[in-house]
Amino acid sequence: MTDARRLSLLALLGLLLVVNLTAGGGGGVASKVTQVTYVYEKDASFIPSGVQAALNRLNRERGILATSFERDTTDGSGEVPEQYKPAAESCEKFGLPLLVVQSGQKVLQVVKSPTTETSVMEAAR
Amino acid sequence: MNSFAPIDPAFVDVFDRDHDGYPDDIAAGDTIDVLKAACGDASREFPKALWIEPKDWADKARDNDKHHTWPINYVDRFTNQSPTHECTCHALRVVAEACRNRQRGIIYPDGPKKGFRYEESSSGSVWLSPLSIYAEANPGQWGGAGCRQVLEIACRRGFLPEKIQPREYSLPHTLQGTVGSGGVNQSHGPWVSLSRFPAGWQKTAAWFKPLEVIFPDIWEQAVCLILHGYPIEYGRNGHAVPPSIWNVTNSSAGYVDSYDRVLYDSLATFKRAAIGSFTIASMVAPDDWLKPAG
What we know:
The complex is a heterodimer of chains A (125) and B (294). Chain A has 125 residues and is α+β, with helices and mostly antiparallel strands. Chain A has helices at residues 3-26, 49-62, 85-94, 117-123; strands at residues 35-40, 65-70, 98-103, 106-112. Chain A is built from four helices and four strands. In chain A, α2 (49-62) crosses α4. The longest helix of chain A has 24 residues, at 3-26. The termini of chain A are far apart. Chain B is α+β, with helices and mostly antiparallel strands. Helix content of chain B is 27%, strand content 12%. Chain B has helices at 24-27, 32-38, 57-67, 87-104, 131-137, 147-157, 201-205, 219-227, 267-274; strands spanning 43-45, 210-215, 234-236, 239-241, 243-247, 252-257, 261-265, 279-283. In chain B, strands 1-2-8 form a three-stranded mixed sheet. In chain B, a hairpin with a 3-residue loop joins β6 and β7 (261-265). In chain B, α2 (32-38) runs parallel beside α6. Chain B is globular, with a radius of gyration of 17 Å. The interface between A and B is medium-sized, with 32 and 37 residues.
């Protein structure tokens, strides 16, 4: 490889590194959605059919863990299930029903009272 | 599924005279107050938020048809109890499994299909053993059990999972599903008494326990539960069944029968049986859906 070509390649790699660092508006790579949870209290509301359909599509089409969680549900030890702790904490702040969108344990966003398939699919983008 | 398609009368009010899994003397004891008491702290009144005016049932049915959100769309397998008297427990497992699958968020658009296994079942569907409840409800094996009995047992200590599962979940304790025929998605084996369950079984069963059980006071509330995706259980004419879809045209309730088939109860049968029905609103949820017993 000539020196000129080597320099061009290095410049290109440098440019790609800068683009990657500035992606997502300012300093990091956009977080990938891994989990979506619709949290509700069954005595106060039901899960809209469109929301249920969206959870199914997220599971099947995008491999996202998309589930519903009735607020009083516990695990086999009587505790809040580990996978739902971030969602349960979000509900303390924002109320129910609530759609909680996560990347790992990090809550990316919440949507209050979604009712349609489109609104859930949009939130999980 | 099309809840407006007329039902063939041959599939409506099919009562097997030889079936005696829910005998009349036991059925007489399954009053609504007794059923509520049976599940203790898990008992819940019908929530007002779930009421749908009968004039709006057709619209909700259309919505369910469009989105595949009938209770039957959360049932991913048939079971077969023939020739045993385990029906109350086979019906109960439909209600419990559908509840878990609804929580898991995966829809099975065609409902259960004989001899077929959905690939998506391996994402967290756990198949529960009716025998794990029946063995305690009726240690004599023959003669059936009451809805109250089996509900009380399930609420107190939960189900054991079956030996056949849609994936390897590393379950510490399992039990054959039935002494009857079983099938490709249901294990079968010899009778086993409660005292011979695998040592430490209670720890696993605790992960497959109902948490909240709703009791409708009138038959219209039972229809509302079905419209909202909750299958119900009731017994009538010697057999216990889990109505899981409402047919608008015929006003009849379709159920996943424990003989590898879907049948229907007429409105008259449904009205008579629905008082004394119940649904499971929530089941114990795992910390990880792929490690369902912790």
